[in-house]
Amino acid sequence: MEKFTTLTGVAAPLPIVNVDTDMIIPKDYLKTIKRTGLGKGLFAEMRYNEDGSENPDFVLNKPAYRNAKILVAGDNFGCGSSREHAPWALLDFGIRCVISTSFADIFYNNCFKNGILPITVSPEELDKLMDDAERGANATLTVDLEAQEIRGPDGGVIKFEIDAFKRHCLLNGLDDIGLTLEKAATIEAFENRYAASRPWA
After folding, report:
1. Which CATH number applies to 6-173?
2. Which residue of 45, 62, 81, 95 is surrounded by the most CB atoms within 10 Å?
3. What pLDDT is recorded for position 146?
4. Do 78 and 107 meet the contact criterion of CB atoms below 8 Å apart?
5. What is the pLDDT of residues 155-193, one digit of tens each?
6. Is the separation of the CB atoms in 19 and 86 below 8 Å?
7. What is the DSSP string of the chain?
């Protein structure tokens, strides 16, 4: 998993509450277990018209936001079903950070396991960040995980809280497999002792 230390990029505003995982990645895209290629389906029902053409009014189709790395979204982001394809689709598109006032628990935890930083802020802070994100090509934010702060284009700083263990995992690029591999020497030593004590096994 790619490490997350400091991210500077365009922030796209998505002022919609209760964005569920079906809106993030519709069920039609769930036929694969590959983590790549899902970016094209991200927010598909809002991004595309019925004929498959792009909806020019959707934020990620606007020139200023096509390469957005940060999403500033409404309350209760990631609710609905527990599909891990939702963070996969965000990551494949290029989104590495989502900022909201609250997240659904399963989506929130899935983000950390896939290298995405979900940040919870107050409603007042979200209003400020949403205003920053609406600046188009000038909507650049810097998210510093080590310092636990978001720096806006006007120099403003918003501090955020995060679980220490989740922070450690993102800073070091550790998913569940990576955490297990950190204990590889201990696991191998145990297996060797076990095999020596039970040669018949």
Report:
1. 3.20.19.10
2. 95
3. 97
4. yes
5. 999 999 999 999 999 999 987 666 666 666 777 777 777
6. no
7. ----SEEEEEEEEE--SS-BHHHHS-GGGTT---SSSGGGGTTHHHHB-TTS-B-TTSGGGSGGGTT--EEEE-SSBTBSS--THHHHHHHHHT--EEEES-B-HHHHHHHHHTT-EEEE--HHHHHHHHHHHTTGGG-EEEEETTTTEEE-TTS-EEE----HHHHHHHHTT--HHHHHHTTHHHHHHHHHHHHHH-TT-
d(CA 32, CA 157): 40
Q: What is the pLDDT of residues 27-37, one digit of tens each?
A: 988 887 777 88
How buried is residue 16: exposed, middle or buried, by Cβ count under 10 Å (0-12/13-18/19+)?
A: middle
pLDDT for position 201: 65
How long is the chain?
201
Q: Report strand pairing: 140-144 vs 6-14.
A: antiparallel
Is the pLDDT at 67 greater than 70? The verdict is: yes
